[in-house]
Each structure stands twice: as structure tokens, then as C-alpha cells.
Specification:
Blueprint (H helix, E strand, L loop, with lengths): L3 E4 L4 E4 L2 H15 L8 E6 L16 E9 L7 E9 L6 H14 L3 E5 L4 E7 L4 E5 L5 H9 L7
Parallel strand pairs: 5-6
Antiparallel strand pairs: 1-2, 3-4, 4-5, 6-7, 7-8
């Protein structure tokens, strides 16, 4: 029988699979240390269910591992994705980064990240440079909000 543990965001027990262990560890750090508001986090969210994508056709069934929303950071939508994270069980490779960048083509989150048990990369799109910039850590919620509200990060 597979070990299970309680996911405080989804409010249910989940199997302790390798990717889920990464996700749950990261969620704990996000809420307890980096002060991401628990009530603005969605886990395993179908991209087609995101409020700002209700009129967009998302090809195939795609789910984001973690999305942290924020209020009043977008000129049209009151609630909008601040950060989208893809969690991986093994070593991070270029294809994983490509996957989360591809998801963000639809989601248009201000920040995206890819995480494993060993590392995390946070990316944001710099329109002036025409590409993504990367840091090898996950900034605190307050820091990401400050960057967005000061207009230093844009969606793709």
C-alpha cells in the first residue's frame, strides 16, 4: 500500500509519489517561509478551468502543478496568475523548462518556475531582452508582488 499524506491546499489525502513529495515540500516552504497566501494557491489545476482562460481553447488536457494567484495585478482580471510552478521528481532538464514555458503560453503568468527535490529555477519574461531571465531560487511572495507592481515583470 502506498503511503499517503494530507495536502492542505486541496484538503485531501494524496499518494506519496516522488513528484507529489516534491510538490508538498515546496508548498510547505511557500506557505510557511516565503509567505505565499494559502487561499490563493491552486494545485493540479486544469488550465481550461482558469477564470481568465474561459474563452481560450487550451489544446489537450493540461494541468499546472502549482499556481499562485494574486489580486489586482492585471488591468482586466481581479484574480490573475502570479506564479506557475511545474514539479519534477528527477533532475531538471531543458525539456522540463520548455514544458512550463509552453504552458505559460496560455496561462501568461508573470513568473514561472520548475522545481525538483534538488533545485528550483524561477523565470520571468523580459520583453526588452526578448527572452526569459532565470534565478536559481524561489523568491518570496512579497518580492514577486513588488516586482509586478513596479512594472518590472510582464506576461509573455
Amino acid at each position: 500500500m502506498t503511503e499517503k499524506f494530507f495536502d492542505a491546499i486541496r484538503k485531501k489525502n494524496v499518494e506519496a509519489l516522488p513528484e507529489e513529495i516534491v510538490r508538498q515540500s515546496l508548498l510547505k516552504i511557500m506557505v510557511e517561509k516565503l509567505r505565499y497566501p494559502k487561499d490563493l494557491i491552486a494545485v493540479e489545476k486544469d488550465l481550461g478551468q482558469l477564470p481568465h482562460l474561459k474563452d481560450v481553447v487550451v489544446p489537450l488536457k493540461r494541468r499546472a502543478d502549482i499556481i499562485c494567484f494574486a489580486n489586482n495585478i492585471h488591468p482586466v482580471y481581479e484574480l490573475y496568475p502570479l506564479l506557475m510552478i511545474e514539479c519534477k521528481a528527477g533532475k531538471l532538464i531543458k525539456e522540463h523548462v520548455d514544458q512550463v514555458v509552453g504552458y505559460n503560453y496560455f496561462v501568461k503568468s508573470y513568473f514561472i518556475a520548475i522545481a525538483s527535490a534538488e533545485e528550483i529555477k524561477t523565470l520571468w519574461y523580459n520583453k526588452k531582452k526578448g527572452g526569459y531571465e532565470v534565478v536559481n531560487f524561489l523568491p518570496a511572495h512579497e518580492e514577486l508582488m513588488r516586482v509586478v507592481l513596479n512594472g518590472k515583470s510582464q506576461t509573455v
